[in-house]
Design goal:
Elements lengths: L5 E5 L3 H13 L3 E5 L2 H10 L4 E5 L7 H11 L5 E6 L4 H10 L3 E4 L4 H13 L8 E4 L2 E4 L4 E4 L2 E3 L3 H13 L4 E2 H9 L8 H13 L8 E4 L3 E4 L3
Parallel strand pairs: 1-2, 1-3, 3-4, 4-5
Antiparallel strand pairs: 6-7, 7-8, 8-9, 10-12, 11-12
Helix pairs in contact: 2-3, 6-8
């Protein structure tokens, strides 16, 4: 069994909180609950959590304000996945600006939420997997061998770095600033070189095959997934 993930569920709909909590417990994880923003902030700052599942529309303090205060006050902040019924690009961008690591639009499937929680919990842990897999795409990080449908795919070093990060975090979104940091550290180029590298990656990983795996969220970031 995989290591238990400590999850704070911040949701004022108690029925939904219970459903999510029961689902996580059944998979061996440890949920805790808060039903308004202020209580959530107290719990988050005094407890120890790996991931916070955060509804935006909350009484006492909404999810966006929670994010801002939590990121400012927490010494070792947990990863945050926002749940939102507001799915416009501006709403999602504002969530990332305030400190969210990922988002999921309501209504959502519990298996997808669990997959995203697992991915977020791995971001700050040592990576132990030698072979990453998403659908029919595999990446052996020891041999640097990439295959899809058992066909070898040749990638340059930059594309290998991008692919590795996208597959590590699948199915979560990786913000574009994080991908830029992987390639250029704190000094990304002025021109949109990232877009050019992702174009090369797509041409190699997606174009020869029927179903695309790399998805763009305009002005937000990228993810790799089967859906």
């Amino acid at each position: 069994m995989s290591e238990a993930i400590r999850v704070l569920i911040v949701e004022d709909n108690r029925d939904l909180s219970e459903i999510v909590g029961d689902y996580l417990e059944a998979d061996g994880h440890v949920p805790d609950f808060a039903f308004d923003g202020k209580s959530a902030l107290r719990l988050a700052l005094t407890g120890t959590y790996d991931v916070i599942v955060l509804d935006i529309m909350m009484p006492a303090m909404d999810g966006l304000e929670f994010c801002s205060q939590y990121r400012e006050l927490a010494s070792n902040p947990a990863r945050i996945i926002m749940l939102t019924a507001r799915d416009t690009r501006e709403d999602i961008l504002e969530g990332f600006r305030r400190g969210a690591d990922d988002y999921l639009v309501k209504p959502f499937f519990l298996p997808e939420l669990l997959a995203r929680i697992r991915a977020l919990s791995r971001r700050d842990r040592p990576i132990s997997q030698a072979v990453l897999q998403v659908g029919d795409l595999t990446f052996n990080r020891q041999t640097l061998e990439v295959k899809r449908e058992n066909q070898n795919i040749d990638l340059n070093p930059s594309c290998l770095k991008l692919l590795g990060r996208l597959m590590e975090d699948s199915p979560c979104v990786v913000p574009r600033h994080e991908l830029e940091h992987i390639l250029w550290g704190d000094k990304p180029p002025d021109s949109d070189v990232l877009k050019a590298q992702l174009y090369k990656l797509r041409n190699a990983v997606d174009k020869p095959f029927k179903r695309p795996l790399i998805h763009t969220l305009h002005r937000i970031g990228y993810r790799i997934s089967e859906g």
